[in-house]
Specification:
Blueprint lengths: L1 H32 L8 E4 L12 H9 L4 E8 L5 E3 L20 H5 L5 H6 L16 H8 L5 E5 L8 H11 L12 E5 L2 H10 L5 E4 L10 H8 L4 E5 L5 H9 L3 E5 L4 H9 L4 E4 L2 H4 L4
Parallel strand pairs: 1-2, 1-9, 2-4, 4-5, 5-6, 6-7, 7-8, 8-9
Antiparallel strand pairs: 2-3
The structure holds SN-glycerol-3-phosphate and calcium ion.
Calcium ion binds next to strand 2.
Length: 293
């Protein structure tokens, strides 16, 4: 009788544990899987929390993560010795104390540069001592710092001048096992103004969600055929919020494309764009637009 009671207790406890595990696991999956769902609206930290910290630095990304961004946006450049670094411009002049093209400098040269003092000088109200001497991070350092604790929205910049940029990117994403939760989880999104760069990535791994960026110089709304062409390799488009009116957003959505708009730092503007059917915004100031979530 006692043995029977014991077995029964073990069985009941086991069942309770199993139920708890399933519930907890389901909770996790729901949170990650929401990112690329039909009704999700993404807040993408444009160059990190670039309104309050030097863009494309670990400090800027950490703040964006702490502020609850869905993605940290990383612009990629490649050094002369083939290392991927986070920098918007193809030259270091605007955001460091150095001068010259990234593609003509070795990583060792880039690592000597101060990527924070310019921000303190331009934003005295937001200046911090810890920004002085802060480095330009490599993509590997960013993945090492954040691992799978955040999501990455990565742009290949000047890919035509950086041979092997896409291969290097995929190699690092695989090395850090960041491609296991692609669709619909959306751990990683890759974006570019270069359709060649995106189709190259699509050719290597067609699970990675890709975003075709549309240049500000494009005056007209792309035709339905153009949108359908993008749809062959991309899940969405990225376009300036100044260009994307109701007709533009509807045309892209009709072609089955997500619409992500850059860069929006005003809540009212964000609300308007969300009501027009946009699926997310790049923002320099997560705090200002947090109300959209
Ligand atoms: O990547 C989206 C948006 O950031 C594109 O413009 O010049 O800021 O990279 P840019
Ligand atoms: Ca960008």
């Amino acid at each position: 009788m006692i043995i029977l009671k014991g077995l029964l207790t073990v069985l009941v406890v086991g069942l309770i544990c199993a139920a708890l595990y399933i519930l907890l696991d389901a909770g996790d999956n729901d949170q990650q899987s929401a990112l690329l769902d039909e009704d999700a609206f993404l807040l993408i930290a444009h160059r990190g929390a670039s309104a309050i910290a030097p863009e494309h630095t670990l400090a800027s990304y950490q703040m964006a993560v702490d502020m609850g961004a869905d993605y940290i946006e990383i612009d990629l450049q490649m050094t002369k010795d083939g290392v991927l670094v986070a920098l918007h411009d193809d030259a270091v002049d605007r955001t460091t104390d150095g001068s010259g093209k990234v593609a003509e400098m070795d990583l060792a040269d880039i690592k000597k540069l101060d990527a924070g003092s310019w921000f303190n000088a331009e934003n005295p109200g937001r200046a911090k001592g810890e920004y002085v001497g802060i480095q330009v991070p490599t993509l590997e350092e960013i993945f090492t710092a954040f691992g799978d604790s955040t999501n990455y929205y990565i742009e290949t910049k000047q890919p035509d001048e950086s041979e092997g940029m896409e291969e290097n990117l995929l190699e690092l994403l695989n090395q850090f096992e960041l491609l296991e939760e692609c669709l619909p989880e959306g751990k990683v999104i890759v974006q570019s103004f270069s359709s060649d760069s995106l189709t190259a990535i699509h050719g290597m791994d067609d699970d990675i969600p890709l975003i075709q960026l549309i240049d500000n110089s494009e005056q007209l709304i792309p035709s339905h055929e153009a949108f359908e062409l993008y749809r062959e390799y991309a899940v969405g488009i990225g376009v300036s919020h100044r260009k994307a009116d109701e007709v533009y957003i509807a045309a892209a959505r009709e072609a089955g494309l997500w619409v992500h708009l850059f860069a929006v730092d005003e809540l009212a503007e964000g609300k308007k764009l969300k009501s027009l059917g946009a699926n997310g915004i790049f923002t320099n100031d997560i705090d200002a637009v947090r109300g959209l979530k």
